[in-house]
Amino acid sequence: MKFTALSFGFALTLAFGPSLAFLAASPDAGEWKAPGEGDDRGPCPMLNTLANHGYLPRNGRGITKDLAVKVLDEILNWDVSVVSDLYDFAQPTNPAPNATTINLKELTTHNILEHDASLSRQDSEFGPADIFNEQIWNETIAYFTSDTIDVEMATKARTARTTAAAATNAHFTFPQLGANFQYGETAAYQFVYGNWNLGAENIKERILTPRKYIEYFFSTFA
């Protein structure tokens, strides 16, 4: 099983040093820069963060499969086959004929990677689904009731967000692919920032994620 628990320093800078420079889309990779005018960003906080730090193209466009696989493998330690499959799902969002790349903005295409009931974005029914929404995020973190997010809190937050979206969005959809990404969204932040103890007797304590990491990541970088 391939996973990693990264330090808060990663959350702040994603600075892994020159040994990973060959992977980066920008020569100044590791330095956070806000998106410039005309730069693309999408509904996925992690991909946005990688672009903000120059590991993916800072303009958010023309991301090749090879680059996406290498960056998510080497920077986040994600399984290559998982990243490859995710890219294949995303690639059709690029409307250009015979396109072989993806652009972050086009990932907002509904019910491919972008989905209803995001933990930090509003449903596309109500407006742009690629922008951090403080009200939605506050509803999510209300379930994080201590300094450490355990599996039960994460599950309750995920379930509550889905329930709220279904109750308020007249066109709420929950296709299998969207459901996979909904729960994948929760798994991803635990996967990257959590402290894993799979041998813990209490299942709630098998993944413990510092709340401050998650709040900072979602509200600042994404």
Automatic annotation (TrEMBL):
Domain Heme haloperoxidase family profile: 28-222
Signal peptide: 1-21
Cofactor(s) listed: heme b
Bilayer-crossing regions: none
UniProt GO molecular function: metal ion binding; peroxidase activity
Keyword Ligase: no
A family per Pfam: Peroxidase_2
PROSITE patterns: HEME_HALOPEROXIDASE
Key words, A-Z: Heme, Iron, Metal-binding, Oxidoreductase, Peroxidase, Signal
Family: Belongs to the chloroperoxidase family.
Protein name: Heme haloperoxidase family profile domain-containing protein
Native species: Alternaria arborescens
